[in-house]
Design brief:
Helix content is about 15%, strand content about 15%. By secondary structure, it is an alpha+beta fold. The strands form 2 sheets. It has a 4-stranded mixed β-sheet, with no helix packed on it. It has a 3-stranded antiparallel β-sheet with strand order 1-4-5.
Length: about 150
């Protein structure tokens, strides 16, 4: 859990996003105890990736993966993840795949850390000049999130 006082720009930081309509998008590599059911309903989405465009595993036991620099998901990487997971299960895609970026005609409704919600296009949420998914990965020691040029998102 992260305190609202630890979050930069609470009115501009997304805390809830619409869930995907495709169960294959929620698939990942966690198996529910005593079943063969694989899902990620217990982990929130995030809009970060490794520099290669692959998912960042915040629960990775591999220190190199967990400690790797975090990059803001780009529209192209996210769109690829949304497209792939609609037709096949993949645990390698960034966790942004858990959301539905087009719940409404002009985007989706996102809830922000200050309690308000707003309908926004997905591309606006990942703009590195106004990155709405958090300027830092607050749940991982407030690590910085970088844009494609290696600059911290704003």
């Amino acid at each position: 859990m992260v305190s609202a006082t630890a979050v930069d720009q609470v009115a501009g930081t997304i805390i809830l996003a619409p869930f995907s309509d495709f169960k294959s998008c929620v698939y990942d590599d966690s198996v529910q105890q005593n079943t063969a059911i694989v899902n990620k309903s217990h982990r929130p989405t995030n809009a970060v990736m490794l520099q290669s465009g692959e998912k960042w595993s915040g629960d990775s036991q591999d220190a190199a993966v967990f400690g790797a620099p975090l990059y803001a998901v780009t529209v192209a990487v996210a769109q690829n993840a949304f497209d792939i997971c609609k037709t096949q299960e993949s645990s390698a895609l960034p966790h942004i795949k858990y959301i539905n970026p087009k719940r409404g005609a002009n985007g989706s409704n996102y809830a922000f850390a200050d309690g308000h919600s707003k309908n926004i296009t997905f591309s606006a949420t990942v703009n590195p000049e106004n990155f709405m998914w958090g300027k830092q990965m607050y749940s991982a020691g407030a690590r910085a999130i970088f844009d494609a040029n290696g600059l911290q998102v704003r």
